[in-house]
Input
Amino acid sequence: MNTTNQETIDRYPTSLLLLHWVRAVLVAGLLWAGWHMTGLNDEVASKYELYYPWHKSFGVLVLLVVLVQIVLRIRTARLPQPLQTLAGYERVLSILVQRSMYALLVIVPLMGYSMSSTYTMSDGVFFFGVNLPELLPKNDDWFVVFQWLHKVLAYTLLVLILLHIVGALKHRFLDRDPRNDVLRRML
Ligand code: HEM
Ligand code: HEM
Output
């Protein structure tokens, strides 16, 4: 995030690199599971016994991973900087998309947590066998607002991720200048 006063390197440090890929797998799984589970019939036992609690657990885990990642990023002195060989609009777009993804990776799980907390029928937020405290009072009107925000922002995140992946693949496979290959910095 802070791109000033930093020496530049041409590859992400291993810690940030590993966290990027672990989080990518978790987020892809959560988007799929969220979409799949909400489409299931209420009579399907696994809907509320399996999908909902594990979606919540992995969702809270993503929030923790992203917070660690943000702290590490702020504390890392040397990070790859935007490539000067990219077009100006590409540099601006990639920074905007990356910052928006970071913001949504915090806000989406918080909306999920708030939704679960305000839902009158739920009792605690399941986190790998532990019930985390609900941080907001029960309120059906607020539940509907958080449910809507969680859904809209989660699918907005999906659109940004697709844009991010298309960008990375374009720089690797379509750009004529091999210096534009940002993917090598994340491998
Ligand atoms: C990065 C993290 C997360 C992502 C990407 C994500 C994504 C999604 C998606 C795509 C849906 C389907 C929305 C729909 O089509 O209606 C969904 C539903 C849901 N999510 Fe998440 N989620 C995340 C974290 C969380 C967390 C932390 C919680 C709770 C602690 C949570 C609780 C729920 C619940 C209860 C639903 C079902 C809502 C309903 O029945 O309408 N999610 N999520
Ligand atoms: C759920 C999936 C993903 C999410 C949420 C995500 C998110 C992010 C974020 C937030 C950054 C900025 C890292 C930083 O500077 O701290 C980043 C960097 C990067 N990601 Fe992803 N990513 C995902 C999947 C992918 C995939 C599948 C690819 C490859 C096709 C990829 C390629 C890259 C590359 C090359 C960078 C470095 C960009 C640069 O140095 O300018 N990401 N990603």
User: Anything to note?
Assistant: Residues 27, 30-31, 34-35, 38, 52, 55-56, 59-60, 62, 105, 108-109, 112-113, 115-116, 125, 147, 150-151, 154, 157 surround protoporphyrin IX containing FE (ligand 1) (CB under 6 Å). The first strand starts at residue 125 and ends at 127.
